[in-house]
Design brief:
The chain is α+β, with helices and mostly antiparallel strands and 203 residues long. It has helices spanning 11-16, 89-98, 103-106, 122-126, 152-160; strands at 3-7, 26-30, 51-53, 55-61, 77-85, 87-88, 112-114, 118-119, 130-135, 138-144, 170-172, 180-181, 187-192, 195-201. Strand 13 and strand 14 form a beta hairpin. It is globular. The mean pLDDT is 96. The chain binds magnesium ion.
Length: 203
């Protein structure tokens, strides 16, 4: 199982971190060990002093493929949820300054959280999807899939030009604006449309 992530997929988020708006999808990966297993506590990583949440829509791949045309891409995922691409922002800023890869900031154990999976319906593939996250009961991020620079089909097609997609692979599709710091004791809740799909405490 592979975990793909898209960076800077919402214009307003790219800008809030002072990044250029990309002309093609920014792709990075997390290893399988990055996926927080259910009923496992999430611990603040000891190597960071600035942990950020990034709430994102996550797709689950249901069909093996390579060189997938955009017009076929909707057949390649059948489950969707909201998840968190946890980021050690202080570590990432240091790595970015030096032009080094991001793995130590993004791909560490349990840095990828996924909510309860929803079956993808034809309706979901036609209409924009709303998602959001609350921290300690207050909304901190609200996203709309139609605000993505690169929509699902384009992301899947693009990734598949470089990497085979296999059943069970996950794609984190990027975060809307509003990313921020979290501290021990915070409660993060993710919502797919109006339905709560995860609740997580930072331990
Ligand atoms: Mg992200």
């Amino acid at each position: 199982m592979k975990i793909f992530c898209v960076g800077r997929n919402y214009v307003d988020h790219a800008k809030e971190l002072g990044n250029d708006v990309p002309t093609e999808p920014v792709i990075f990966m997390k290893p399988k060990s990055a996926l927080l297993q259910s009923h496992t506590p999430f611990y603040y990583p000891e190597f960071s002093n600035e942990l950020h949440y990034e709430a994102e829509l996550v797709l689950r791949i249901c069909k093996n493929g390579k060189y997938i045309p955009q017009r076929q891409a909707s057949k390649y995922y059948n489950a969707i949820t909201v998840g968190i691409d946890f980021t050690a922002r202080d570590v990432q800023q240091e790595l970015k300054k030096k032009g080094l890869p991001w793995e130590k900031a993004k791909a560490w154990d349990n840095s990828a959280v996924v909510g309860q999976w929803k079956d993808v319906t034809a309706d979901m593939q036609k209409k924009p999807i709303n998602f959001s996250m609350k921290s300690n009961g207050e909304y901190v991020q609200k996203g709309l899939s139609s605000d993505m620079l690169f929509p699902f089909d384009e992301i899947i097609s693009h990734i598949s030009n470089y990497f085979s997609l296999n059943i069970g692979d996950l794609i984190f599709t990027g975060t809307p604006p509003g990313v921020g710091e979290c501290v021990v004791g915070d409660i993060l809740e993710g919502f797919f449309e109006q339905e709560k799909v995860f609740e997580l405490e930072i331990k």
